[in-house]
Amino acid sequence: MSQIGTISEQRATSQAQVLSGINQFEMGASRLPEIAKPRNLKAFVGLNHIWVLHKTLIVRGGAALFMALILAVGFQARGGISQAVANTADLLASRIAVIGFGIGEISISGQSMAMETDIVAAIAIDSTSNIFNFDVEAARVRILEIPSINDVSVRKIYPSSLIVDVSEVTPIARWRVDGVTFVIDGKGIQIASATSADENLPLVIGDGAADDAFNMIIALENYPILKDGLLALSRIADRRWDMIYSSGLRIQLPETEVGRALFQLQEAQNNSQLLDRDISIIDMRVATIAALRVNKREEPSH
């Protein structure tokens, strides 16, 4: 009996060991790592499409940002933080210009006296200028500083063009001083250098002539007969005018009461063709006297 009991105990012990081994195997198997499943597959596909479509822009933008960061770090290390920011902004602006948004075309219309080169210089395009950072109003203010321009509009045309429409000042006369001839406006301001296209404008000569030209030109509009053959109005000592004719006649006007003198001249021309006679000077500087100087004739030699 004791042997049978011992054998039974041994069998029970063996079975318990087998069951324990099976349980440990199952527990170990339950702790094995699971195979990872792909996640966010749609997001990955979307990013891949963006990369394929915009690879060039992304690479250029990344390169620009990288260079900008290097520049900023370098300047910051030297204490130039504000300068680093400015240089970074310039670099980014220039990169934007390079990828197709730089201002590549400027259309200018309406100018005849103003030089295109002066207008372009006032617009002030540089390597950092692009259609986004270009200041239209600041450019307009600079263009208006050109004397011959009265008004101007500046418009952006995306992605890379500007349209400039100019309205110029109306010139009233040519002003010759020290051998140089300018075109002037009603205020006597120099608009531009005179050209052959301005030869129909009245010519005023001498120091101070530009300042009083408008008043004299307007006064002559009331006496059109006196404008026939008139070459120039010469300012004398910045106090009065001489009228110079193609015939060589010179009329010396008074400092004051110019209108009265012009009226008298018109009456004399209507009644006796005074201006057509062989006279070199008509002196009207004294109100009550008109002095005449007849051209000298050479006596025939015998």
Automatic annotation (TrEMBL):
Residues 101-169 form the POTRA domain. InterPro entries: Cell_div_FtsQ/DivIB_C (IPR005548), FtsQ (IPR026579), POTRA (IPR034746), POTRA_FtsQ_type (IPR013685). GO terms for biological process: cell septum assembly. Keywords: Cell cycle, Cell division, Cell inner membrane, Cell membrane, Membrane, Transmembrane, Transmembrane helix. One of its GO terms (cellular component) is membrane. It is found in: Membrane. This is POTRA domain-containing protein. It comes from hydrothermal vent metagenome.
